[in-house]
Amino acid sequence: MPRLSTSPVRNEVIIINSRTREIIAKTFIWAAAIFVLVILAFIIIYILVKGLPIISWRFLTEPPSNMGRSGGVSSTIVGTLLITLVAILIAAPFGIGTAFYLAEYTRENTVTRVIRFSAESLAGIPSIVYGLFGFIFFVIYLKMGWSILSGGLTLAFMILPTIIRTSEESIRAVPEIFREVSFSLSATKWQTIYKVVFPAALAGIVNGIILSVGRCIAETAAVVLTAGSALRIPSSLFSPTRSMAVHFYILAREGISMENAYGTAALLIILIFLINVVANTLLNSFMEKGR
Amino acid sequence: MNNFKEKLAGRIFLVLAFSSISALALITVFILIQGAPIMTKVGLFKFVFGMEWAPSQEKFGIFPMLVGSVSVTLGAALLGVPIGICCSIFLAEFAPATVRNIFRPAIQLLAGIPSVVYGFWGLIFIIPVIRDYLGGPGLSILAGSIILAIMILPTIISISEVSILALPRQYKEGALALGMNQWQAIWSVMLPAAKSGIVAAVILGIGRAIGETMAVIMILGNAVALPESILDPVRTLTTNIGIEMGYAAGEHRQALFATGIVLFIIIMIINASAQYITRKK
Asked: Selecting from 3.40.50.2300, 1.10.357.10, 1.10.3720.10, 3.40.50.720, what CATH number does the domain B21-25+29-280 have?
């Protein structure tokens, strides 16, 4: 009999416990999420508030003068764009080609496992190690010197895994029926890939490339070791240059000009934001087409 | 003609597919060639466990930096992992659609911001706060851990969220049907089921923290000495390369490549274990 009297009480205790626990857990989870959003907003708003007033047409179109104490950032914008362009032009064919091979030309076997292992390992290698490699391989061994070409090629190595992964995902997202219809019209494999699969996967592939552009623009460690930090406007692909991120780093670390540092940082954040917006819009349109 | 084109296309794709393998091989070979001689000259043990780093006197010991890297990374993991996992649960289970539509792009932006900007922000905000309220120079393990914790959040959140969302719906529905509340279903059914993905997320986050250079170069103080508290400045393997590569030559430069080898090996072990854990599933 005593068991009967205690059991409802015990049950109640358990119910209260699990409910309280759920409330506590939910509170923590909401708090963590809000905390992260607040920190992010704080970082971005702080840099923008300090940096946006610095950005003007002159800031964008004048080269830095007096080591960056005055003048704008035009030469670093040119440098960043050229390095990024080289990186994408080299990495895109290799990355997209690898993705087509993995998705269309082979089954999972030892070769694909090694390819995937290499790509995932490349994705995890720190940028400073890419910098060391680019310095010894492109700058010294291939005698390219500190140059746009060395910087761009080094970054091509770095973004290769991103392009492979995003391209493979979007190729695999193309419905099988597309290929079957194409084959049934007696198209060959290459024709199917070239005329059917590639156009269908294009938006997703471009999305990956745009994200890689963002990585190139944000990269500092690998660029400073391979492209140098010269402030002149580059005259050829073999000229040394200074990217925006490197420029910001040097201005801030050596305390050359806090104002111009904030301006450059704000410019970088705006660029990354725009790149993300474009990439997401593309991805959404791609996903809707897939449906 | 068509047949030839077909064969050619297949060959070309195969050749392109070897790019990532050759890239990894090139990186490994060139860094080894540059760094290995000084390692053998100093002696592997003395290089890794040596306490003194004085390139001008040809003393190359990286143990303080190894300790620096490990301590900063541990600190970042302690702060970042719980918050990151909470955020991934939030996104996968609790967030209303509107909040999620703000949160996801925000995390993406967090991942895209140049690491130098984080370092700069830490220098301006975190350092003075630590110096004024906790003492010490401010440039410290603690400051580095805080900044790295923020920087590894996107990795941890996005990979954990994907592995929670990838669970079959029946797991959650079954748990709820058994009378569990939402949190019990998450805690005792979904998290254990998504464990391998979450562990991989944490490992990759740790890999990012160990490899980060430019953010911590401004806020760690870069002193080559064994830290006694989390308020002491340290130098990490990455910042050692980042600071001295600009002017190093000869054996000094080789020693920096050797530092790179140690970093490379640590990262490859981390990568391989993350890949092993995700494959096992």
From this structure: 1.10.3720.10
